[in-house]
Design a protein that fits this description.
single chain, 147 residues, alpha+beta, 8-stranded antiparallel β-sheet, two-stranded antiparallel sheet, 3 helices
């Protein structure tokens, strides 16, 4: 569930909570952080890929982005729960058409969960397609944006 009041994201299965008040230390000390894999380390920035898909109506791959101790961004990437296929798989299976389908799925999820609203007091939720990365994802950003 995404709280439109606070920006907190609570996943049903497995149970994980992320939000703008989460520190890197608290994340790493919790079960999600202990099983997450470091994705990017460029001090003071780090990002962590959470293990397994996480259900929030759709199944998502989740990446949590920190600036020093502060969670400032979460990426959600819808996956097929039967195959756990993601954009990070083989480029042999990649197509822009598939990513546009994924973006459409993200757009629908966003419309259902935010009523189409993207800006909030705590930050923003945007459905994006990044042509350089070759992937579509939901981008949840919290207030403070490091530069």
């Amino acid at each position: 569930m995404l709280s439109l009041d606070t920006g907190d994201i609570t996943f049903e299965e497995p149970a994980v909570a992320l939000g703008p008040g989460l520190t890197l230390d608290a994340f790493r000390d919790g079960p999600a952080g202990r099983s997450a894999k470091l994705h990017v380390a460029n001090d003071p920035y780090t990002s962590w890929k959470l293990a397994g898909p996480h259900a929030l109506e759709l199944s998502f791959r989740v990446t949590a982005w920190f600036h020093a101790q502060r969670l400032y961004r979460v990426h959600l990437l819808a996956v097929d729960p039967t195959t756990e296929n993601t954009a990070s798989g083989s480029w042999d299976d990649w197509s822009e058409a598939q990513e546009m389908q994924r973006k459409t799925s993200h757009d629908r999820w966003m419309a259902r969960h935010t009523g189409g609203q993207s800006l909030f007091d705590w930050g923003e939720v945007v459905s994006r397609y990044d042509d350089r990365a070759g992937m579509a994802f939901l981008d949840i950003r919290y207030g403070f944006q490091p530069r």
